[in-house]
Amino acid sequence: MSKFAKKKSGELPAVSTASLPDIVFMLLFFFMTVTVMKDSSLKVKNELPVASEIKKLEKKERVITIFVGKPNREFEKTYGTEPKIQLNDKFASPSEVGDYILMERAKKSQDLQNVLTTSLKIDKDANMGLISDIKLELRKVNALKVNYTTGKGDAFSNIK
Amino acid sequence: MGRRAGAPEVNAGSMADIAFLLLIFFLVTTTIETDAGLDRMLPPIEPPETDVIIKEKNIFQVSINKNGQLLADDELTDLKALRAKAIAFLENNGDGSCSYCKGKKDPKSSDNPTKAIISLKNDRETKYSTYITVQNELVAAYNELRNRESMRLFNRKFTDLEAEYLNPETSPELKEELKEKVKRIQDLFPQKLSEAETSSN
User: Fold this and answer.
1) Residue of A nearest to B122 (CA)
2) Partners of residue A64 on adjacent β-strands
3) Number of Cβ pairs closer than 8 Å across A and B?
4) What value does the CA radius of gyration of chain B take, rounded to a whole number of Å?
5) Which of A146, B72, B109, B188 lies at a 20 to 30 A Cα distance from A37?
6) Which of B151, B118, B123, B152 is nearest to B137 (CA)?
7) Among B70, B85, B190, which Cα is nearest to B120's?
8) pTM of this prediction?
């Protein structure tokens, strides 16, 4: 048997898939680096309004997030359909916001405690009454820097 | 063919499968987002010790009722006209001390930009989306004026300057330089947007 025997012609050579792992790994590394793990699951409807004059919220470790919105369908029976506040993983009343902020603030390192921003992720159908209550609670614990988190877009599209 | 010396090659055929598995995991858990929004400072809860007397003409009162209607300086105003109205109020320059203002110098409106205050009031039943739109328009009014001055002084938009200043990737030397510029523009049109307590009815 000669070493350089000619292949039988007529048969299509198979496409080499040897580089497939490389491609997949490349994608994998991309997603691994851009990934931010979700730290809490949303239990409320959270459709943010849009605004055009927005500023980016840099540095995630300096942000405390509060969600507000209608409870999802599976929680409707227990919590009703009125917009609710979600702190971490559970529903809360406005009076608990202050304690939550203080608790979260205590978790952060000393030098960050004075530069924290509260990100308010509020559903666009919520009423201002609840938000005023939250704002009052935030003022009570001296968490004055807030960010009304919104999407980017034409602000007039909020009003139909 | 006879066996050669050296270890046999490990079959790497399943590597792709493993990589795919990981890839799919990260694809599912990924949320690519940088949050953005309107930055606001809430007023401190203790009232300031010295009561400052503010002339009524220096306050631009914006109220939103529960139907989303807007009252700006006691006039029913369309949301789209709010920005222009706020700009006219801010750079009115009633006492003539503001050299860069292009306002009408109406004696019934604000004295100068450093004294002009915009007060935003809302009903408890106002929709959040309306409130954000109004906030956005008021911030836009400030930004428009600041951009204009920034273009005149530094030939760059204020919003760009500020974004670069706040970007953590900007080098410290550049930041120092930008800080001065940002501060200078901010002093020309200081953002005095007060959020009064919500009226209950």
Assistant:
1) A128
2) A118
3) 171
4) 27
5) A146
6) B118
7) B70
8) 0.76
